[in-house]
Amino acid sequence: MAGVADSAFRLMAKEGGASLVYSELVSAEGLIRDSSKTRDLMHFVSQERPIGVQLFGSKPESMAEAARQAETLQPDLIDLNFGCPVKKVIKHGAGAAVLQDLPRMKQIVHAVVQAVECPITAKIRIGWDHDSIVATEAARICEGEGAAAIAVHARTRSMGYSGKADWSYIRKVIQTVRIPVFGNGDVFSANDAKRMLDQTGCDLVMIGRGAMGRPWIFQQIQHFLDTGELIPDPSPSKRIEICLQHFDLAIQQKGENRAVKEMRKHFSAYIKGLRGASRLRTELFQMTEVDAIQEKLFIFAEDQSIHG
To answer: Which fold has domain 236-307?
Structure first.
């Protein structure tokens, strides 16, 4: 969720019913070198709590120092990412690359837990590829070194985001450790979340891509779990209203120029599947003025209401 899960996105998720949110991926090396851009990734406001700062890196000493610095912001937890499959992360031996070196994972978790007072969680994939599935062993290591919880994305690194997540590995991890386990992978609806909970017994359902352009998904899930009733998606015009609210938050936090550029991926997600979305997306990607973008979205919402 790099470039996606910023403060504005997290505030929308919280308003939509999310119980816990995480920062974007924060580079341990960038943080200890005092990169202002890296430090900005940790910014959050009180309305986002509970929130975890998500760190990645390959060196135990760097991860420990980065955790100390992150803790000064008083997040509710610090999360160690051993699951990111992106090349620019794994080429430095971080993210999912750590799954190929479990002794180093052990050293990282140990160093970070010893360095800070706040809870430490970890996120893993089930392995580097299907010839090296290490989910249960990695989870056991994290628990043994003091992690408070572990999230399992039920794909290998080699799968990226393709194929189907194999939730059976989440269940295997739950049967291996006593700390809470969060399930992740292929949850795009309330029904998906209920199936994951039923099939795996996980303590929480973690949603990433499924919340893009759909921050109301968390409320839909909670309502379905509580009542068995499915709340329909908002109307097209309401979706645009929520999108504009998100845009306003981004402008407040980042300024107009940056917000316009960084919201483009969110615009695409909010309007996906709506009549005329392809044409609107092309037009929005060419626009640079906030007023013009807002007007275009207002007109689109009115057109959706008129033509249903």
So the answer is: 1.10.1200
Q: Domain limits of the chain? A: 7-216, 236-307
Residues with a catalytic annotation lie at 84
Cβ burial of 131 (10 Å; 0-12, 13-18, 19+) is: exposed
What is the residue type of 14? Answer: K
Placement of tokens 């910023």 in the chain: 6
| Contacts with 93 (C-beta within 8 Å, 6 or more apart), sequence order | 58, 101, 104
Percent residues over pLDDT 90 in the chain: 92
| CATH domain 7-216 topology | TIM Barrel (3.20.20)
Residue written as tokens 């919201």? Answer: 263
For 19, the token pair is 């119980």
> pLDDT (tens digit, 9 = 90+) per residue, 221-231?
999 999 999 99
pLDDT over threshold 60, residue 308: no
Q: Say what angle helices 236-254 and 264-271 make with each other, to 10 degrees.
A: 170
Q: What is the pTM of this model?
A: 0.93
Looking up tokens 């202002």 gives 36
Angle at 62 between CA 59 and CA 65, to 5 degrees: 150
Is the pLDDT reported for residue 307 higher than 70?
no
- Average pLDDT (230-248) is 95
